[in-house]
Amino acid sequence: MKLEINNVTKKIDQQLVIDNLSMRLQAGVYGLLGANGSGKTTLFKLICGITRLNSGEILYNGQDIAVHADEFRSILGFLPQDFSYYPDFTGMKFMLYIAALKGLKGKLAKQRCIELLELVGLADVKGKKIKKYSGGMKQRLGIAQALINDPEVLILDEPTVGLDPKERVRFRNLLSSLAENKIILLSTHIVSDVEYISDEILIINGGMIQNRGSVSELVQEIEGKVWEVLVQPNELTSFYKKYAISNQKSQSGGIVLRVVAQMKPAENAQNVQATLEDLYLYYFREGGLIQ
Ligand code: ADP
């Protein structure tokens, strides 16, 4: 399976939201990481056929998804950011409702719904009303509904928002168990989520894929540009003005700042191992790339 996005452009109200974006994906979990407004949701809407592109093409296994829209929709699962459900429905009733919308009926529908609720760990609460579910349970229900047609391509828009740490772990394990024979593309602006969940990270900025790779591949770009420096409280403001600061911690003798900068920011600065958090700051610091 292969999803190819070739030179896709999308304008909204004269604003270039997706800018000549190209990427190729095969089976695996891909984390689309970008600040708010970088184009993640728009890209997903283009892939899901909710909005039309201005130029370029999206191919699935070599076929244009706009031409073969029904076929593509039948192998596509989508969890939108504003996933809505009926609070008075039980989990099971909601799943049966989604199954009916997808054309699944009778025994088969029931069996599939139970299977999926088991997969996402909601079998024992399937008779409970959704309004009684926790954030994580609702999110897992969202995934279950996106899986109803056993999709080959699964798109999840900001799926980890509102999950507590335990739910995050559960969610990550669920995705890994699904990833073997699917293309899973999820978006987030939370660095630590994408780091743990995805096989590969795609960094989107200004509607373009700026970089992609594993965490270790990506952080190579800023290797040698991350520093720790001990400063005094009266120096803080000038450091914040001058540099991108990815962390600050107090210790005896002053404050340790983690600085992302091309050049050594102070005499006593020490180079430290770069992390994805540092890279994110490097890309998304207000005012663009760090000089
Ligand atoms: P993200 O999901 O990364 O936060 P979006 O794809 O939602 O980014 O938005 C990218 C840009 O496109 C933003 O600048 C946003 O304001 C603009 N945009 C998206 N949808 C609309 C819309 N329906 N009308 C006007 N502007 C939009």
Structure characterization notes:
This protein is α/β, with parallel strands linked by helices. It is 32% helix and 29% strand. It folds into 2 domains: 3-219, Rossmann fold (3-Layer(aba) Sandwich), CATH 3.40.50.300; 220-284. It is built from 10 helices and 14 strands. The strands form 3 sheets. The protein has a 6-stranded mixed β-sheet with strand order 6-7-8-3-9-10, with helices on both faces. The chain is globular, with a radius of gyration of 22 Å. Bound molecules: adenosine-5'-diphosphate (ADP). The site of adenosine-5'-diphosphate has 11 residues, from helix 1. Adenosine-5'-diphosphate is lined by residues 12-13, 17, 34, 36-42.
Main β sheet profile? 6 strands, mixed
How many helices? The count is 10
Total domains, how many? 2
Query: Unreliable stretches, pLDDT < 50, 5 or more residues?
Result: none
The fold-level CATH name of the largest domain is: Rossmann fold
The strand order across the widest sheet is 6-7-8-3-9-10
Helix content: 25-40%
Share in β-strands: 25-35%
Name of the top-level CATH class of the largest domain: Alpha Beta
Radius of gyration: 22 Å
